[in-house]
Protein 1
Amino acid sequence: MKHLLSIEDLTADQIHGLLELTDHMAEISSRPIPKVPALRGKNVVSLFFEDSTRTRTSFDTAAKRLSADTMNFSVSSSSVNKGESLRDTIETISAMGVDAFVVRHKSSGAPLQITQWTNASIVNAGDGWHQHPTQALLDCYTIRTALNRRDGFDGLRIAIVGDIKHSRVARSDVQAFAALGADVTLVAPPTLLPPALVNGNSPDWPVTVSHDLDSLLPDLDVLYLLRVQRERMDEALLPSLHEYSALYGLTAERAARLAPHALVMHPGPMNRGVEMVVDPGELPGSVILNQVTNGVAVRMAVLFSLLGSGNDLKETA
Ligand code: NCD
C-alpha cells in the first residue's frame, strides 16, 4: 500500500489487517513510554488546508509515537497566502525530503491529485464531501473493541443520523461498515440526503434509508450521530435547527430507548443542543472519547503500513 486515499481502495481483508495492527499500536500506546523507533528517520508532513482539532493532533501524536520526524505546515502563515499553487507548495516541500503527506483539503480529489506531484505517500485526512478513511477505520476499531466483534460486523445494526449529504465521514463509514458486514441505515431529512438517495436506493450506497429515528432506536447496536455541517450549506436545507433537533437530536428520552449494550458515537466536533441534546458524558453507551483515543492507534497503524517495514516494531525506544 503506497497511499490511503479512500476506503474503497481497501478490501475487507485489508481493513481487518489494519484493525489487527491497531491492536498492537494500542498496546504500545498503553506503555509508560508510548514510543517505538519504527519510523525513525521518516519525515511526515501535515498539510491542513481546512480546520481540524482531533485529526491533525492525532496524526501528529501517531507519527511521534513511531519516532518519525514531523512537520506541521500551517496554511494561514504560508506562501499559499501569496498565491502559491497547491502543486508548487507540494513540490517545494517534497524537495526537502518527505516520506508522507497527511492532507486535508476542502476539494474532493485533492489528495489523489497530489499523488501526481510527489513520490511521498499520501494519507487523506478528509477531502471535501468525499472521504475520510482514517475516521472510518477508527470508527470500525471502536465498534470492534467495544462490542467485541473481532471477526466482523455481520448482522450488526448501525444507524448513521444527520447531515449525510455533506459528510465525508458518512461516505467512508458506510463503505467500511458494509465491507465488514453491518446493516447500515441512514436517517436524515430528505434535504440532507445525497441526491442519489432522495428517491430510494442507489447501487453506490449499500444502505437502507429512513426518516424516522424513533422507530429504529430500540433495535440498534450503534447510533452514529453526525454534525450538522452549517459551513458546507450554501442554501437553507433545514427549516430551523430547533426543528432538526426535535426530529433527529439525541435527547435523554431517545437515549433511554436504546438497548443497554448500544453504542453512541460522533466523529466530533459536536453541536451541543442540535444533534447532541443530552450530555454524552452521562450516557453509559457513549464511546465518543474512545473514538478519539483509538484515532491515535489507528493512525499509527496506517503510517506504519505505508512507511514501515519488517521487524521495525519489535525494538523498543
Ligand atoms: C469530521 C471532519 O472534519 O470530516 N471531523 C473529524 O475529522 N473528526 C466531521 C465534521 O467536521 O463534522
Protein 2
Amino acid sequence: MVNLRIFIVFEIVKCKANIEGNISMQGLNIQQADWAVVEQEARRIRTAVFIEEQSIAVEDEWDDQDAIALHFIVYNAQQQAIATARLLSNHSVGRVAVLKAYRGYGIGRILMQQIIAQAKIEQRPTLKLSAQVHAIHFYESLGFTVQGSEYLDCGIPHVDMTMMFDASH
Ligand code: COA
C-alpha cells in the first residue's frame, strides 16, 4: 500500500528569505511517501547535491534501502521539490539534502523536525545518523549528540550522532 501523507508547514522561517530575494519560504509542504511515489524528485535532488556537488560515486549513492525507506520531500510554494531525506526502519536518518539555492533559510531544520515528529508518532526509541562533519552543528541544534570519533565514508569525514526519545513519547 502506498504510504502517502502530506503536511502543510506553516512555520515562517528566517526573514532573510523575504529580504534577500524572491524565494518564498511560506507555504512549504512536506510529503512523506514510499520510493515509488517520490523517486523522481528524490533522485533529482540527491543527484544534484551528493553526486554532482559532493562528487559521491553513483554506486555509493543508490542502494536497496531506498525501496524500503520512508522518504520526505519538501516542496516550496511553487510546488518545486527542494529538499529530501529518508528514514529507515532501523531508526537511521539519511540522505538529508537541501538544494544549494535554498540553504540557510531553515528548510533543513523544518525537514528534520518533520522526521523527528514522525519518529515520535511511531514511538521510536531513538534516531541515529551518520553526519558529515560540517553539519554537526546543524544536527546538534536539533537535539542530536555526537557518538564516538570521526571516520571516512565515501571519502568524506563523518561522525555518528543519535537522539534518544523519552519513553513516554
Ligand atoms: N554547517 C554548520 N551549520 C549549519 C550548516 C552547515 N553546513 N547547515 C546548516 N547549519 C545550521 C544553520 O546555521 C542553522 O543554525 P541557526 O538556526 O543557529 O542559524 C541550522 O543549522 C539550520 O539551518 P538550515 O537553514 O535549516 O539548514 P539548511 O536548510 O541549509 O540545510 C543541510 C542544512 C546540511 C541539510 C544543507 O546544508 C545541505 O543539504 N548540505 C549538503 C548535503 C549535506 O551535506 N547533507 C548532510 C549530510 S549528513
